[in-house]
Design goal:
With 314 residues, this protein is mainly beta. It has helices at residues 152-169, 301-311, and strands spanning 4-5, 16-21, 26-32, 44-46, 50-52, 56-62, 71-77, 80-82, 84-86, 94-100, 108-118, 121-132, 138-141, 190-192, 197-200, 204-207, 211-213, 220-222, 227-235, 239-245, 250-257, 259-260, 267-268, 273-276, 288-294, 297-299. Strands 14, 17, 19, 20, 21, 23, 25 and 26 form an 8-stranded antiparallel sheet that branches. Strands 1, 5, 7, 8, 11 and 12 form a 6-stranded mixed sheet that branches. Strands 3-2-4-6-10-9 form a 6-stranded mixed sheet, covered by helices on one side. The protein binds zinc ion (ZN). The site of zinc ion (ZN) has 5 residues, from loops.
């Protein structure tokens, strides 16, 4: 593994970058410029250096180790800004961010871009991240044909709803609204995994961008964490859906509900009952579809839960 310095603005500033692989707890220096001190400390770490499409990696950056005057740290992955927060359980100056790998990503050696300002000006570095194949399964589903071959009216409706959802994701809270671990929205088994390649009625192909839980109509559904309800209405594909903004670019979605029990704009606590599960929208039967969107990317909800647990030291 190498960390490449891309644009050092001066030649006399020493930059030290080290990487710790949390999974193995082994400390490995990634790279450094000249005059590397003996006491290499952790600057950048990733929860895993190989991440499957649809999964999320935990990024940690120790700004203190970038230099006493380092400020204005930014991280991006595939041009998508990665929101950075003060690490919830580590010292001041250690930042954490969640890097979601899109389901559409193909295996490659990718990079996370870092930028910060120090006495020498604006600096940049890249952190390598290997994208591997999630090897998701395929399934065929039979649904009402009106949800596969769309009428002109429904086509226009879907277009409008996509726009509305895009606006919501683009206008999330800059303030962290979630605290403590995220929870499953109900206690039940998974009936269809995230990432599955789906063929509807032998015609329409798509990727499953959430996890389905077995739930008969009328089962209470609970908010995974605290946040602000940004959507609580009926959509063509999702049926009755609730979207919760947890702040700093984390959203959770609860679809196909039989009943919605919260309102748009309502602040809710973790575990708040947001509705009852159902079979509205494009479904082959009753279930709860639960999705998690992190920094603009739908990620595997159950893996997201474990990454958040790691972040919280649990
Ligand atoms: Zn689903």
């Amino acid at each position: 593994m190498k960390l490449n310095l891309l644009r050092p603005l001066t030649f006399d500033t020493i930059l030290l970058i080290a990487c710790t692989l949390i999974s193995t707890a082994s400390h490995e220096a990634l790279a450094s410029t000249q005059n590397e001190p003996d006491n290499i400390s952790q600057v950048v770490s990733l929860s895993s250096t190989d991440v499957a499409n649809g999964q999320v990696a935990l990024l940690e950056i120790n700004l203190n180790e970038l230099g006493p005057a380092a400020t204005d740290l930014k991280a991006t992955f595939r041009k998508q800004s990665i929101a950075l927060i003060q690490h919830p359980i580590k010292s001041r100056g250690i930042y954490a961010g969640l890097v979601g790998i899109p389901l559409s990503a193909t295996p490659e050696k990718a990079v996370i871009m870092l930028e910060w300002t120090d006495a020498g000006g604006r600096r940049a570095a890249s952190v390598p991240l290997g994208i591997i194949d999630g090897k998701y399964r395929s399934e065929t589903l039979k649904v009402d044909s009106r949800h596969v071959t769309l009428s002109k009216k429904n086509l226009a409706r879907v277009k409008q709803e996509k726009k509305e959802i895009r606006r919501i994701f683009a206008s999330g809270s800059d303030i962290r609204l979630w605290f403590g671990g995220f929870k499953k929205p109900l206690a039940s088994e998974t009936t269809s995994a995230f990432g599955t390649r789906r063929l509807f009625n032998g015609q329409h192909r798509s990727y499953h961008r959430g996890t389905d839980f077995r739930a008969k109509v009328g089962t209470p559904v609970y908010a995974s964490n605290s946040g602000l309800v940004r959507l609580a209405k009926n959509l063509f594909y999702s049926g009755n859906i609730v979207i919760v903004d947890h702040g700093i670019n984390i959203f959770t979605l609860y679809a196909h509900l039989s009943e919605i029990q919260v309102n748009d704009g309502q602040h809710i606590a973790r575990g708040h009952q947001i509705g009852l599960s159902g079979a509205t929208g494009r479904v082959s039967g009753p279930h709860l579809h639960w999705a998690v969107k992190v920094n603009g990317v739908y990620v595997e909800p159950l893996q997201f839960l474990s990454v958040i647990s790691t972040l919280l030291g649990r």
